[in-house]
Amino acid sequence: MIRYRRHITFLYFFLFAGAFNDLLRLGGSQINLFRILLPFALLDTILLSTKARKAYLVGLVVAGISLVQSLIFTALNSAGVRFSIARYGEYFFYYLCIATVVGAVITLYECDPAGFRDGFVKYVMLVGVCYLLVFMAIYHTHYDYQGHFIVLNNPNDYGVMLVMILPVFYMQFRKKRRWYYLIFIPVAMVYLFLNDCKLALLGVAAQIMIAFYLEVRNRAVRYRKLLFLPAVILFALVILVMDALDVSIHGYSFRETILEPIKAMFSGRLYPGSNTSVVFRTNVFIMGVQWLFRTLFLGIGFGNAGVLMRNVLGQHNLYGSMMLLDSISLHNAYLEFLLEFGVVFIIGVVLLIRRVWKVLKNAVLDHFQICFVTVVISGILWMLGPSGVLADYQIFAFLTFLLIGVREEKKA
User: Which helix H or strand E contains 232, and what residues bound it?
Assistant: First the structure.
C-alpha cells in the first residue's frame, strides 16, 4: 500500500474532480479539472491495474459494437437520423470519461485491497457532505442557474447523487452505532424537498422501505421467504393512500407527477406538449419504447437516441426547448442506455440482477450487503432523475465500488 500511496492519493483526487466537475471548471468553458486530469488518470490505471486494462478492453469492444449498431440503424431508420462521425466521437469521449472513472475505482482496489472499502467509504461520505453543502448554497443564496450548462444548474443531478450516498451513512451507523451518522439523512431529505427533487425523494422513500424490509428479514430468518408478499402489499397500500390524499410537493401532486404519467405510458397517449419535465419525460418514454420494439432491442448506437427523439417528437409537433442542445439527453438513463446499447445493456442488467439475487439468497445480510441491495433496487427510481447522467461520474464510481465490495466479500 505504501508503494502505491501517491497513486491512490492522485486517483481519489481525480474522482473528487469528477464528482464536482461542474464547479471545478475554468469559467464558463468546457475545460474543467476532471478533463485536465483525465489522460493522466487513464495512463495511471493502464499501467497499474490488470483488471482496469481488461475493463478498458471490454469497453473498446462495446464501442466497436456500438459503431456497427449506429451504422446499421442510421442506414435503415425512417426517422431521418443520419450517421455522424463527430457525434460518435463526442459520445465516445463521454463514455471514455466514465470508463476511466470505473478504471480508477478498480485500480484503487488493486493498489490496496485491505483498505479499499474503508478508504472509499470515507471518500464517499466526504463527497456526500460536500454535495449537501452545495444544496444548501443553492437554496439559501437563491442561485439563478438559468442560462448556465453546469450540473449545478439542475438540482436533480445533485439530488440523485446525494440520495445514492444516503445508505452509506446508515451503513456506518449500523456498523459503528454512532448516532451522528444518522443526522445526515434527515438534513439531506429536507434540502431535497426544498430544492424540489421529486424523483430523488421517491428514491429516499424506496430506500427507507427496502432497508426496513431487509432489517426485519434479518431478524426473522425463519420467515424471510414469507415476508416478501406482505412487503409488496404494504408498498401498494402506501401508493394508494398517497394517490387518495393527492400528496403534493411544490405544487406538483403525486397523482399528476407519477400516476397519470404511468397511465399515459401504458396507454401510449402522448401529452400535447413537451416543455415541462414530467410531460417531456413521459412523451420520451412512450416514443422510446415504441422504437425499442421497432429496432428489436438490438441497439441504435450511442449518441443517436437524443437525435431520434428530437426527430420523432418533432413529427408529432412536440419538439420542445429541452431538445435544443447538441448533446441531447432523454432525462431517463435506463431508456437512453437501452435504446443505444440494446442487448448489450440488457446483458449488463441481467448480470446486475443476478448479483443482487445471490446476495439476497443469504439468510442474514451484513451492513455492506444491505447498502448494496438498497442502492441498486432504489436506483430503479432515482436513476430516472438525472437530466444528463453521462456527466454524473460519482454514480458510476459508487456503483463500481459496491460491485467490487460485494464480489470480494463473497470470496472472503
Answer: helix 228-245
Beta bridge partners of 249: 252
CA distance 237 to 235: 5
Helix spans in 116-194 (H): 116-140, 155-176, 180-194
* Whether the predicted model's global pTM rises above the 0.85 cut: yes
Segment holding 249, helix H or strand E: strand 248-249
What is the rounded CA–CA span in Å between residue 102 and residue 398? 9
What gap in Å lies between CA 263 and CA 278, rounded to an integer?
Answer: 13
pLDDT over 60 at 46, yes or no: yes
DSSP state of 67: H
Answer whether 182's CB lies under 8 Å from 173's CB. Answer: yes
Q: So what's the pLDDT on residue 258?
A: 61
**Main-chain phi, psi angles of 253, to 5 degrees:** -80, 155
3-state SS, residue 87: helix
Q: Percentage of residues in the chain with pLDDT exceeding 70?
A: 80
**DSSP readout, 317-374?**
T---GGG-SSS---S-HHHHHHHHHTHHHHHHHHHHHHHHHHHHTSSS--HHHHHHHH
Distance CA 399, CA 375 (A): 9
Residue 248, classed as helix, strand or coil, is strand
* Strand, helix or coil for residue 296: coil
Other C-beta atoms within 10 Å of 212: how many?
A: 13
Q: Which of 369, 398, 371, 370 is nearest to 383 (CA)?
A: 398
Ramachandran category for residue 243: left, alpha or beta (phi over 0 → left; psi -120 to 50 → alpha): alpha
